[in-house]
Design brief:
The chain is α+β, with helices and mostly antiparallel strands. It has one domain: Bactericidal permeability-increasing protein, domain 1. It is 32% helix and 39% strand. The protein is built from 4 helices and 7 strands; from the N terminus they run H-E-E-E-E-E-E-E-H-H-H. Strands 1, 2, 3, 4, 5, 6 and 7 form a 7-stranded antiparallel beta sheet that branches. Keywords: Signal. This is Putative secreted peptide.
Length: 221
């Protein structure tokens, strides 16, 4: 009899703990969604992005290469960063380590013009994970890292005068803008990844998470 009672108590406590974990994970998912919605209201949705003295590693010799000037063109859709699946929440002694699968769902890059009649638009599929920590004792959110290992492209062409899609025979995509060539998967992707995961966008992302932190603060135990 005592054994049955002990087993019942243990099972009950386990069920309560599991239920609490599932509920907190739901709170985290809601918090992330609210923060992304907040980001969408403040982030620049379209702008010309360029770099001076962009530094990249040499894949062949391992040396550092400095590119004097480099342009990503006009970048659209920064306000469409979304959570793809449930976040993974790992409870530790002092904090919760959170990892969320994310993607930019409507990211597009209008590349610098190579002629006066046609523009090239890259439709970008950028997926990865957002990592951050929820501190237990200090009740704070910290350590944001956005990792985007998967960046893929499709190309569409438009009329520079009307900004409409080209109807009829499609002109050739300029060699420098061909996603299967060396430039777009190489230097362009490196620069785009830096732009998306560092600098102003991440600063605004952190601010969005801090502004919405009160909705989860009291849920952290």
């Amino acid at each position: 009899m005592k054994g049955n009672i002990a087993c019942f108590v243990v099972c009950l406590l386990s069920a309560i703990m599991i239920q609490g974990k599932v509920l907190f994970e739901k709170y985290v998912n809601d918090y992330v969604d609210r923060a992304f919605a907040q980001l969408a209201t403040v982030v620049t949705t379209a702008g010309l992005v360029g770099y001076k003295n962009f530094t990249r590693p040499d894949n062949v010799g391992g040396n550092t290469i400095i590119v004097d000037k480099f342009s990503l063109g006009y970048v659209y859709g920064l306000n469409h960063l979304e959570r793809e699946k449930d976040c993974n929440v790992n409870e530790r002694r002092k904090d919760y380590a959170v990892s969320c699968p994310v993607s930019f769902t409507e990211l597009k890059c209008r590349l610098p013009a190579t002629d006066t009649t046609t523009y090239v638009l890259l439709n970008v599929e950028a997926k990865g994970k957002l990592h951050f920590r929820l501190l237990k004792w200090d009740k704070d959110v910290r350590a944001f890292i956005l990792v985007l290992p998967e960046i893929k492209y499709t190309v569409s062409l438009g009329n520079s005068t009307t900004n409409d899609d080209i109807i009829g025979m499609q002109p050739d995509v300029p060699a420098a803008y061909n996603p299967k060539g060396p430039n777009i998967p190489g230097l362009y992707t490196e620069a785009l990844r830096v732009f998306l995961t560092q600098g102003d966008l991440i600063s605004r992302l952190e601010k969005a998470f801090r502004d919405t932190f009160p909705i989860i603060k009291d849920k952290i135990k």
